[in-house]
Design goal:
- The chain folds into 3 domains: 162 residues, Nitrogenase molybdenum iron protein domain (Rossmann fold, 3-Layer(aba) Sandwich), CATH 3.40.50; 106 residues, Nitrogenase molybdenum iron protein domain (Rossmann fold, 3-Layer(aba) Sandwich), CATH 3.40.50.1980; 141 residues, Nitrogenase molybdenum iron protein domain (Rossmann fold, 3-Layer(aba) Sandwich).
- 47% of the residues lie in helices and 12% in strands.
- It is built from 22 helices and 14 strands.
- It has a 5-stranded mixed beta sheet with strand order 2-1-3-5-4, sandwiched between helices.
- α3 packs across α8, α12 runs antiparallel to α13 and α15 runs parallel beside α16.
- The longest helix is centred in the C-terminal third of the chain and has 23 residues.
- It is globular and about 75 Å long.
- It starts with 25 loop residues before the first helix and ends with a helix.
- The structure holds iron/sulfur cluster.
- The site of iron/sulfur cluster has 11 residues, from α4.
- The site of iron/sulfur cluster (SF4) has 11 residues, from α4.
Amino acid sequence: MTGDATVSPPHPLEPEAAGLGCHAGADKMREASEAAGNAALLDAFAKDYPLGPHDKPQSMCPAFGSLRVGLRMRRVGTLLSGSACCVFGLSFVSHFYGARRSVGYVPFSSETLVTGKLFEDIRDAVHQMADPARYDAIVVTNLCVPTASGVPLRLLPDEIDGVRIIGIDVPGFGIPTHAEAKDVLAGAMLAYARAEIAAGPVARPAAEPTDRPTLTLLGEMFPADPVALGQLIAPLGLAAGPTVPCREWREHYAALDCAGVAAIHPFYTAAVREFEAAGRPILGSAPVGVEGTAAWLDAVSALIGAPSRAREAAHAALPGIRDALAAAPISGRITLSGYEGSELLVARLLIESGADVPYVGTACAKSPWSADDAAWLRDRGTVVKFRASLEDDCQALEGLSPDLAIGTTPVVQKAKELGIPALYFTNLISARPLMGQMGAGPLAQEGNAAMANRERMQAMKGFFEGVGAGDTAGVWEGKPNLQPEFRARHQKKLEKQRRAAKAAEMI
Ligand code: SF4
């Protein structure tokens, strides 16, 4: 614990980073961050969250993922350190999604950033906020500029009056998606909880303890899914344990005290590292559809060495799932893309429901815990694209002319322009149960209702025909005031800048 002593940052802070942001480009931010002594942090991010083919966030600010995880936890305070515009956007979105609590902010100027005063301001704010009557933990997050400037959150006290202090860097130039930012915070919290367990007895988790060994679930899911999953593993002598990211601090202890971890969402690299360090085995995929459930139950059985009669008893749930799928068929061609991490699971369920799914794009990276799902989908002719870019998703949409496009906001917008029915993955699909018998009906209901709208979509397309597109969209009194020469001049300027930068590299 560093206590109250004034601590100066070990590296001179990088003044140029103060004016940078998403618009500056990842390369510039990375350069500034390395110059400020954060090269090791960026290397660790590159290992945990491999980039490519696209290398920048194409959705909302990644820090929203970790912010939301912290805001959903009981007795956890949140402090952001970053540019005011970033913090405004993040707090706006968090309240839009019903945060119902304050987001703390430590503002900075070029001067406080360069002199290291920002770090002192953050430390003062943490001390002011650390009231054990209100908080179990406070999460301090460095956004892009403070990360690029090397503001050293690791030098904050570990705890103040029993309030745990967790400092994380979540820069958009190191964390590709908001999904993976959830892992940054979940991993940091598990690491802290693991150290507490190693140091001595910890508080008993609030939830009623079960007498059976548990399976910890990794990934935010629809509330009915852990219940369905718990019923499926009951014949194996297991119970569903806590879901990580947790909703309160003491759940971390119960999560670490498990027989195994089901990585339902496959991108939790940092969290998995903590479970592995605690000696817990990890299992990929999830119980979706008949084949998915059978394979997953067999994998769980193998993981815990369940006797064959327990395995057979667990398989007794399969006919019910088969009947539920048969009672809610989906027919039609569907393209699917998203950034939640559950895209491959949803695609499996759609295919088992009867849909033709030729393309699945996920903004998350390939990982060992999605390998079986990807292989299953590829065996059925589906193209699976990891780290899919918006361009990949739109190309699939245009090239495959599906009956339904499930995707992110810009993909849905593109589909609507083409007169194709579309559903938002995040709001409509990942907010539905996927597992057990309950997984079958809602997806089919939603998908079939959307596909039945095709004629309406075509009528709407006809209605809006002639209103222009892109920068000429809208109702114009005269002709759109196009200035192609301005655009050409700007392109030339950019080209010149690119050539100058290339020439500078050669010097
Ligand atoms: S913190 Fe988020 S919004 Fe701000 S510059 Fe970074 S990626 Fe962009």
